[in-house]
Design goal:
Helix content: 25-40%
CATH class: Alpha Beta
Order of helices and strands: HHHEEEEEEHEHEEHEHHEH
Distance between the termini: 52 Å
Number of domains: 1
CATH topology: Aminopeptidase
Structural class: alpha/beta
CATH architecture: 3-Layer(aba) Sandwich
Largest sheet: 9 strands, mixed
Strand content: 15-25%
């Protein structure tokens, strides 16, 4: 009961925040320039709740991450995103305490293609606490990875209400990524054992601030498949680029895309805008909402939405591993 009341109180905070005026720093001023799918103010609303002090850093198994889960599940339910399993909760079997992924589905509208799936994911957990800065010990995880979680929420809202996808789509928020990709390892293995027909997986990680380069985003495992090329083709512009440091640090294997590649051997890669020079607060208590660029986040979401839509609608599986 205590946990239930805790979750309700946090959801009340989130609802109350919807009427709060947006923007308090010049960096986060909201314009009307981006309005095709989501506005910067809508992005800020969701991220502000996920990265709030009340959630205490969303560590896997904590009351804070459970409150985040309830918030996300409520949005899924309100926007026509159904549970893929019996409920939205996919309880991890490889984690000591109780924690779970959130898995929602929008069924495809094509009789044949709906048997193929595109998975869109991000991890919604963080590390809980960090090295104190003054009196602050809460590692809010705004960029890592409330930003990616916010993107998946908006994609789910779009496809849940529009139903424009021929292939079926899973929208997944992973827990325990910070414990060693445990949520994605659990789910990828589980789906493989169920003969899940996976076409491709796209993961979103740390998209809260723009890169100091021309390309909007980069793709981990860039050379592993033709995903970047096809995404740029679908966008009609180069929105996905190559970041050499991503290869140097082997980022392809360090986020929730990789367990899906390991299990299914299909294109499974991560979209990111953290380029090792543009953000100083990785796993830091100053990874706060005040550091996020909401116009940039809205731009990423708005440009990626038609790309994901095309990915879900092509008559053939155009995205392929380069080695196959």
């Amino acid at each position: 009961m205590k946990k239930f009341l805790f979750v309700l109180s946090l959801l009340a905070i989130a609802c109350k925040s919807t009427s709060t005026p947006v923007a308090d720093t010049p960096k986060n001023e909201i314009s009307t320039a981006v309005n095709s799918v989501v506005t910067a103010s809508e992005v800020k609303k969701n991220l502000s709740f996920l990265a709030s002090d009340e959630l205490k850093g969303r560590e896997a198994g904590s009351e804070g991450i459970n409150a985040a889960a309830s918030y996300i599940e409520n949005i899924f339910q309100q926007n026509g995103v159904k549970p893929y399993f019996e409920t939205y909760n996919d309880t991890l079997t490889n984690f000591e305490g109780p924690t779970y992924n959130i898995v929602g589905m929008v069924e495809g509208n094509d009789p044949s293609l709906k048997n193929e799936f595109v998975v869109i994911g991000a991890h919604y957990d963080h590390i809980g606490s960090g090295k104190p800065v003054g009196d602050d010990t809460i590692a809010n995880g705004a960029n890592d990875n409330a930003s990616g979680t916010t993107a998946v929420i908006e994609f789910a809202k779009y496809f849940g209400t529009k139903k424009t996808n021929k292939r079926s789509m899973l929208f997944v928020l992973f827990s325990a990524e910070e414990k060693g990709l445990l949520g994605s390892r659990h789910l990828a293995k589980k789906l493989k054992e169920e003969n899940f027909n996976l076409y491709a997986m796209v993961n979103f990680e740390m998209i809260g601030v723009p890169m100091q380069r021309e390309t909007l985003t980069y793709l981990t495992g860039y050379k592993e498949s033709n995903m970047a090329k096809k995404m740029n083709d679908y966008a009609g512009e180069e929105i996905v680029g190559f970041l050499p440091k991503a290869g140097e640090y082997n980022l392809f294997k360090r986020s929730d895309n990789y367990p899906f590649y390991e299990e299914f051997k299909v294109p499974a890669q991560t979209i990111c805008t953290f380029d090792f020079t543009n953000y100083d607060y990785y796993h830091h208590v100053d990874d706060e909402k005040s550091e996020m660029d909401f116009e940039h986040m809205a731009n990423v979401i708005n440009k990626m939405t038609p790309v994901l839509e095309e990915m879900a609608n092509t008559s053939e599986k155009e995205i392929k591993m380069n080695s196959l």
